[in-house]
Design goal:
globular, 21% strand, seven-stranded mixed β-sheet, Growth Hormone, Chain: A, alpha+beta
Length: 375
């Protein structure tokens, strides 16, 4: 074990995790639209933290945005939305009128909620959307769209390479729904740092064995591969079960409880690398906590909704997206840690201190999610 004193490590780790304390939540905007002949009504939600980044509303610089500061910045926010969000019926633009801003609270913080109405000169058959919010400040930002026309609901993930989208209002494509939810699943895994850190905490010791109270390197690829396969399969099976149950409203848990326990799962998995209790059955940890991570994945589906007529296709696409994103992470991490497994610095420094830093960061999230009011 490294001789670095714990107090020094804690101080250094606090400096490291402080900027990441809110980075576990992907930057998403939420757009809801209803089409009725020539009229499009709806709302857009943008996180207060993103509003601050985009137009700067924290006038006194105290790192807190008050209602007064937000209210005084409302004209600039509406102007920003108007410049970065556009609608068109086919090739004909639909002017957007924004209404008074309100505040909506989600599990990851407060959001500016702005209703709007757009009047199109022709009946809307194909709706073209331009979504360019936050692209100059945060390229990872995405807009999650739910579009309803009559009894038909469809979704889209906007932003990045998909800043411009065209949707057939009356006849949505099941294939498009599959692709949209596949992309959403991949993006959620890559943007959800908490899920990635849980997986990383389980992968770090996968190239090691515990003997005589010490970590020793695995001698061959096969045992390491089998260890990783067990962990990933258990995690996949577990979160697929609860994701499906929650998506079809069979079982649901309060979001705050789910997010808090997800943070706790990271603490447990990371500390198990520092003070090993479960060494040969990490797949059991992956399965047990994977059940809870599935409810976390379901919260994204709750925000997006499952489109009528393509519920199963969309759910399968989202789950496959999660698996694809997860597999990409495993394929990126495993060659690196397998190559480092014989190095003393990996076993004595990177594994314990890296896991300790992960546990510390997850503890911050746990306190925020379970006990502190979000802002």
């Amino acid at each position: 074990m490294s001789r670095t004193p714990w107090p020094r490590f804690a101080a250094a780790a606090l400096l490291l995790v402080a900027p990441l304390a809110h980075a576990h939540v992907a930057s998403n905007g939420f757009i809801v639209m209803q089409v009725n002949k020539q009229e499009v009504t709806g709302s857009i939600e943008l996180a207060i933290r993103d509003v601050e980044l985009a137009i700067g509303v924290d006038a006194d610089g105290d790192k807190r945005v008050t209602w007064g500061e937000l209210h005084r910045s409302e004209p600039r926010l509406l102007q920003y939305l108007g410049q970065h969000l556009s609608l068109a019926a086919g090739d004909t633009g639909c002017p957007i009128s924004f209404e008074a801003m309100r505040v909506n609270t989600r599990v990851d913080g407060n959001y500016a909620w702005v209703p709007f109405v757009a009047h199109c000169p022709v009946a809307v058959r194909q709706l073209r959307l331009g979504y360019h919010l936050m692209e100059e400040f945060d390229p990872s930002h995405r807009g999650l769209l739910t579009l309803t026309a009559g009894t038909v609901t469809q979704t889209a993930v906007l932003g990045g390479d998909d800043s411009l989208a065209t949707l057939a209002v009356d006849h949505p494509s099941p294939g498009r729904a599959f692709v949209e939810y596949l992309q959403a699943g991949i993006w959620h895994i890559w943007g959800g740092i908490d899920h990635l850190l849980f997986l990383l905490s389980l992968l770090l010791p996968a190239v090691l064995l515990r003997r005589n109270h010490h970590w020793v390197p695995i001698e061959a690829v096969r045992p390491a591969f089998i260890s990783v396969l067990k962990v990933v399969t258990a995690f996949t099976l577990a979160h697929s079960i609860t994701l499906s149950l929650a998506a079809f409203d069979i079982v649901r848990l309060p979001t705050r409880l789910t997010e808090s326990v997800i943070a706790a799962s990271i603490v447990v998995a990371a500390l198990n690398n520092v003070f090993p209790v479960v060494t040969e059955s990490r797949a059991r940890i992956a399965f047990a906590f994977g059940l809870l991570h599935g409810f976390g994945f379901a919260s994204v589906l709750a925000d997006m909704g499952l489109p009528n007529g393509a519920r199963l296709v969309s759910l399968v696409g989202f789950n496959l997206g999660i698996e694809a994103g997860q597999l990409a992470v495993v394929l990126a991490v495993m060659p690196v840690i397998y190559g480092l497994r014989n190095a003393r610095v990996y076993r004595r420094t990177l594994l314990p201190w890296g896991s300790g830093a992960i546990a510390l960061l997850a503890t911050v999230w746990l306190v925020q999610r379970a006990f502190l009011a979000t802002g």
